[in-house]
Fold:
Amino acid sequence: MTRKVIIDTDPGVDDAMAIFFALCSPELDVIGLTTVFGNVHTDLATTNALRLLEIAGRSDIPVAQGADAPLVRPYGGPVPYVHGEDGQGNVPLPPPSSKAIETQAAVFIVEQIMRAPGEITLVPLGPLTNIALALRLEPRIAHNVREVVLMGGNALCPGNATPAAEANIHNDPEAADLVFGAPWQVTMVGLDVTHRVNMTRAHLERYAQVDKPMAQHIARITPFYRDFFEKTYHCDGIYVHDSSAVAYVIDPSLFKVERWPVRVDTSSGVSRGKTWPGLGDPLPPPWQGRPLVNVCVEVDGERLIEMEYERVCQSSP
Ligand code: BDR
Ligand code: CA
Structure:
């Protein structure tokens, strides 16, 4: 049985890889992409989402544009030094010939979930603004979604946007605290695991050898992104963020999870955006009564990397 997923995304080099991974996985039926600010402004995120679907030959999938700013504070701006000015590693790409649908992302999410109760999995790969807006619009989506599997957060390790916080959560901590507090099953695929999925130069070079549009696009967009990782983390290649969330939806046995309530620091202090798991018994008041989140704490990185390569490079088309 295939699982229906909506991917909420700010493409983004690793978002592109994750979208292709999902599209090439027979277990998943991608019923829509919704876009959000984050790695790039929302307009460009939408353009990139449309471009990616064209490369994949899947322009039949609707793209719904979403929020262009966080719930409360102003948007901190794009990160061209990570993903390139164009969000796709500074490679020349033609404008898409397809268009986004008229429906706003949050409305699209609500309509799809309420139309197919218990069937849809949300896979947010960017700031959680659209998901929080959808919850505000129709709180019953929490009881009608299948689950939420998100890339974001850092439970027991440092952040990447700041020493305290991971980028997606740091971009909209208020939205994230709402999403972690809603009565639905959330799985947090954060830096605790994604920094342990290391796609090396040798792994990445294999994509260039494959004569398929999706593999070729990955080969073109990753060198810029890889250079950022190698300079910043002194590693070989990249850490796999967004594709790790897709991998969890396909095969959760790749991960070990702990079940903790999660609060997000929404203060203005140095820890803004930090995801704090509630540890200890009894729980301190801020964590009391909050739902248990599946927090990924261990991962079989090699198996995940092979799975992504096989799906994108060896499956048809
Ligand atoms: C997350 O931030 C973005 O740069 C990536 O696309 C990923 O979603 C990693 O912290
Ligand atoms: Ca992303």
Q: What stands out?
A: The first strand starts at residue 3 and ends at 9. The mean pLDDT is 97.
